[in-house]
Amino acid sequence: MSESPASPLTTADGVPLKVSLRRAVRRSKVKAFLLVSPLLLFLGVAFVMPIVEMLWRSVENAEVSTYLPRTVEALEGWDGGSLPEEPAFAALAEDLRTGQEARNLGLLSSRLNYEKSGMRSAISRTARGVRNLEPPFRESLVEAHRAWGELDTWRLIQREARPYTISYYLAAVDRRLSLDGEIVKVPDHLEVHVGLFWRTFWMSAVITGLTLVLGYPIAFLLASLPLRHSNLLMILVLLPFWTSLLVRTTTWIAILQSQGVLNDLMVTLGVIADEARWQMIHNKTGTIVAMTHILLPFMILPLYSVMKTIPPSYMRAARSLGGKPFLSFRRVYFPLTVPGIAAGGILVFILSIGYYITPALVGGQSGRFITNYIAYHMQTSLNWGLAAAIASILLFVVIVFYMVFNRLIGVDKVKLG
Amino acid sequence: MAIPSYATRGERIWHYVFLGLCALIFLFLVGPLLIIIPLSFNAQPYFTFSEAMLTLDPAGYSLRWYEDFFTSRAWLGAIKNSFIIGIASTILATILGTVAALGLSSRYMPARGAIMALLISPMIVPLIISAAAMFFFFSKINLAQTYLGVILAHTALGIPFVVITVTATLSSFDTTLIRAAHSLGANPTRTFFKVVLPLVTPGVVSGALFAFITSFDEVVVVLFVAGPEQRTMPIQMWSGIREQISPTILAVATLLVLLSMLLLTTLELLRRRSERLRGITPE
Amino acid sequence: MKHDDKQAGKVALKRVTCAVAGASVMALATMAQAQQTLNIVSWGGAYSMSQQKAYHEPWMEKTGDEIVNIDQSGNALAGLRSQSQAGNVTWDLVDMLPADAMIACDEGLIEPLDHDELLADAPDGTPPSEDFVDGALGDCFVASIVYSNIVAFNTEMFPEDKQPSTIADVFDLENYPGKRALLRKPINNLEWALIADGVDSDEVYAMLETEEGIQRAFDKLDTIKDEVIWWEEGAQPPQLLADQEVAFASAYNGRIFDAMVSEDQPFEIIWDAQVFELDGWVVPVGKLDKVKDYLYFATDTQRLADQAQYISYGPARYSSSDMVSVHAETGIDMMPHMPTFPPNFATALQKDDYFWADYNDELTQRFDAWLAQ
Questions:
Q1: Which region among A17-31, C195-209, C258-272 has the lowest average model confidence (pLDDT)?
Q2: What is the pLDDT of residues C187-228, one digit of tens each?
Q3: Chain A residue closest in CA terms to B258
Q4: Residue of A58, A183, A282, B64 with fewest CB within 10 Å of its CB?
């Protein structure tokens, strides 16, 4: 710019142009942001805060300090070498008495039972008879339940008095804290979660691969047909996309189950014997088939939108330069579709690892995902801290992939139909 | 996809093999949806074609599962709930999403990428995680087991769809049209209603349809956040499939397939209209 | 018609009950004017149907109340917790297992019950605390039935001269081939595995507290693992048996009975080593006033006896047991189908709620890990 400082450009009312422009830009920025802010506020309350709450729950550990306050205080400074002295026992008896009257010992006993099986009944049985206990409590409590005579119990209470814990995360990866405070692997016969995480990832990878294999030719066909025809065929892709997930899952049950359409057909055709019907559902096959079907449109659509932008003349040029069909495809066309493959692949993979309904309905024992375990801990075992920890780990994985996706493709490029 | 005249014989064969493969994949995509339609008219309580059905014997067919559906209080109540929740959350999501999309498509929007990523995230975060998180949080603020709670949850899930479709429409929106309207003497209000709105409407409506179908199909969040009074149709189906899979489910499924066909047709018509308005015609 | 006879009988008995508890009937009469909706949570299927016929329908007729059945007992504890956290308890009365009731009671989710105050006396004036069977009245719990976890089989899947009869047969693939459907939980399966392996039923739970005992149970389950289909919903076992997808299925005895009488299925129950337990009502916190009268009605001697006309679960009151008669629709004698019928009861094992309260978390995890192997 070569304007002289003596005579800056001004608008009609004498404000320097630069200032005026900056002001206008700021005003536009504020206006744009104000338009978005109601939605941001809404999502903050209805979506972000719940997730923050969940993350917090995965480390929260208030039970022992809330329900055994006197015991925790009495154990301060205890070295854990031998059973604590009478004051700690008396404090425990007092805490249990208060808790029994207020009927709020349930959460405490569940919490301790996660760490040491048997604590639930130790607490509830002792609490039930606590009114009749006589000092010295060291003797009478041990008599009421043997758990109070074990050093491990007291160390556990002391350890779990801390307001935060990583034990849910440890449990989510099949580890736990030993009583010396070291992280150790749980015995083999209690290992569940790590295997499920891996299974979720590799089955999702298989599903992603299958959708690519099936989706690529379709996207290619759609992209090379004239719009009039491809629009019609596109409807065939969009129809399943728009149909209820439960409907699509139900239909696979009808088709694949042992008394289902496919097996019946095979028996009628004489391909298999009536007694040797294929088991295609309530196992890995069921999950993979149904989810490939459900996620296929998510692969086709990004592939299609990338292929649409590749001018057909490229292939023709390659051919005219002497390339064999396959070679020209591999060297010229395919590399151009890689962004579409990446977009579709990441999208399908992210969606797949988070699927819950389909694996739950058609996955049986071997086709279950880690998500089914989140639901199990939410609804059945009621170990909400563990559910939150597993969910947080899964969320972390999804966010990483989402960021990769965003960096590579950009979320604003996502198209729907 | 015509075969070029210079194609060799091998290429021709390959071309037909390719078309055959594509036909099979299309069959895989759509066949399962079509197969349940005849199955839902099975007179027998089975999930497969009976002999009578295959020989086209009228006795093999019946409307009993539809009758079951339309006379069941549980199902009808569930439909009502699905519509209440679906419509309310669609309205909310459409308003919030459209207004936000107007801001997002401004050139001056600060931190556009980050905000966009956040707004789309409800679509990406696994439903089971959203559901668990909302369950914890909504329980705390007395929204669990209420209509409002489910509606807010579904609004959050529907928002990405509205934001995506409306910003897509706006990005292809030719702003010179606004200037043209101004220069021809229209005031901003008149410009908005006469020029902007008609061009943006198809995007808003298809976003709304996406939001509606998202809510209408959603199981996981309802499973966690809703109480017995907010039992929706997908929940009714879910428990039906888990417990005793009766062909009533297939009747419902057929109706839902028809619904999705209807929605898809609407969308297609909208798309054509918007292309026509913008002066784009199919090749 | 038979139906009318029964009605008459019911009226006569009702009169006796009324005479005993006149004051409460007055309360019922005033209730009749204030119609309300009761959300009652139960297990669904044949069981909810029996409650509908025996309790809900007469109650609705009597008071004009509306009763909404919610089939959520499988997740009752989670539901109670979340509702109480949400401060919005929509359930009025919940049917649940005593082990869950114990936990819910400890967590203060359900009301403590004063049984002699809240429940009807037996027709002869015996107070509830003496009329209910052992363990039926918990701090916050009142049982209505005794039910049993059994293994049933489809008689058509075995030659007539070689029908299974003991729990050991279920683990005997050589002599009794075919798929087995078992509940996808350690509960019952571990007990049966040990008993089938020759452990005395008195020692089962003591044994399961030791590592060797658990290992022994899993080892035994290992022998049939490949032939097992795991079920999760109570409605599945009868369906699997009927479709002949499996030869054996563990199930709740009432569901099997229901399939036998109402669908004429060729099923038979192996009563050997049945694991029986109670099931009954709990009242969510704050709902006692609302459901007090219904609870009084639904747990009286007549109602419990009535329920046994629809499903083969034993009434939890001694005074009702004596009144168990015939099935309401088919007229077959109900007594031989009850878990408590002496020949059926000979080798029965009572589920140890304390054991499962302590070890369920850990054993479920171990069970899942074992399944995943």
A1: A17-31
A2: 999 999 999 999 998 999 999 999 999 999 999 999 999 899
A3: A243
A4: A183
The pTM of this model reads 0.86
- Total domain count for chain A? 3
SS3 call for B49: coil
Of C70, C86, C87, the CB nearest to B228: C70
Q: Please state, in angstroms and rounded to a whole number, the distance separating the CA atoms of residues B48 and B53.
A: 10
Report yes or no: C85 at the B interface, CB cutoff 8 Å. Answer: yes
**If contacts are CB pairs under 8 Å, which of residues 223-262 in chain C contact chain B?**
232-236, 239
Instruction: Pick the residue of A194, A382, A383 with the most C CBs within 10 A to test the interface with C by mutation.
Output: A382
- Using the structure block, give the residue that is written with the tokens 């759509």: B30
Confidence band, pLDDT 50/70/90 cuts, at residue C354: confident
Backbone angles phi, psi at A104, to 5 degrees: -130, 30
> Does residue A230 sit in the same domain as residue A289?
yes
pLDDT digits (tens, 9 = 90+) for B126-162: 999 999 999 989 888 888 888 999 999 999 999 999 9
Residue A181: inside a domain: no
pLDDT tens profile A369-378? 999 999 989 8
Comparing CA positions, the residue from C116, C105, C200, C188 lying closest to residue C148 is C188
Query: What count of CB pairs under 8 Å joins A to B?
Result: 277
Residue B42 falls in which region: left (phi positive, over 0), alpha (psi -120 to 50) or beta:
beta
Residue of C nearest to A188 (CA): C369
Q: Is B75 on the interface with A (CB under 8 A)?
A: no
Chain-chain contact of B244 with C235 (C-beta, under 8 angstroms): yes
Neighbours of C63 (CB within 10 A): 21
Does residue A14 lie within any of the structural domains? yes
Domains, chain B, with CATH or none: 9-60 (no CATH), 74-245 (1.10.3720.10)
> What is the model's pLDDT at position A382?
84
B250 to chain A, any CB pair closer than 8 A? The answer is: yes
Q: Where are the alpha helices (DSSP H) in A273-333?
A: 284-307, 312-320, 325-328
Q: Are residues A320 and A377 in the same domain?
A: yes
CB atoms within 10 A of CB A267: 17
DSSP C51-108: HIIIIIHHHHHHH--EEEEE--GGGHHHHHHHHHHHT----SEEEE-HHHHHHHHHTT
Helix, coil or strand: residue C180: strand
* Domain C2-145+278-337: homologous superfamily in CATH: Periplasmic binding protein-like II (3.40.190.10)
- In Å, how far is A295's CA from the nearest CA of chain B? 10
Sorted by sequence, the CB contacts under 8 Å of residue C19 that are 6+ apart come out as: none
User: To which CATH superfamily is domain C147-277+341-372 assigned?
Assistant: Periplasmic binding protein-like II (3.40.190.10)
Instruction: Pick the closest to residue B117 from A180, C253, C220, A36 (CA basis).
Output: A36
| Domain that residue A325 falls in | 193-413
pLDDT band at C88 (very low <50, low <70, confident <90, very high): confident
User: Quick check: is A186 in a domain?
Assistant: no
Among residues A293, A294, A310, which one has the least CA distance to residue A222? Answer: A310
Strand-strand pairing, C93-96 and C137-138: unpaired
B246 Cβ under 8 Å from any chain C Cβ? no
The CATH number given to whatever domain includes residue A352 is 1.10.3720.10
Neighbours of A, requiring at least 3 CB pairs below 8 Å, are B, C
Q: Is residue A52 part of a domain?
A: no
CB-CB neighbors (< 8 A) of A259 in chain C: 243
Residue A128 shares a structural domain with residue A2: no
Asked if residue A110 and residue A1 are part of one domain, the reply reads no
CB-closest option in B6, B48, B133 to A264: B48
Assembly ipTM:
0.88
Query: Could you tell me which residue, A56 or C21, shows the higher pLDDT?
Result: A56
Q: Band of the pLDDT at C10, cuts 50, 70, 90?
A: very low
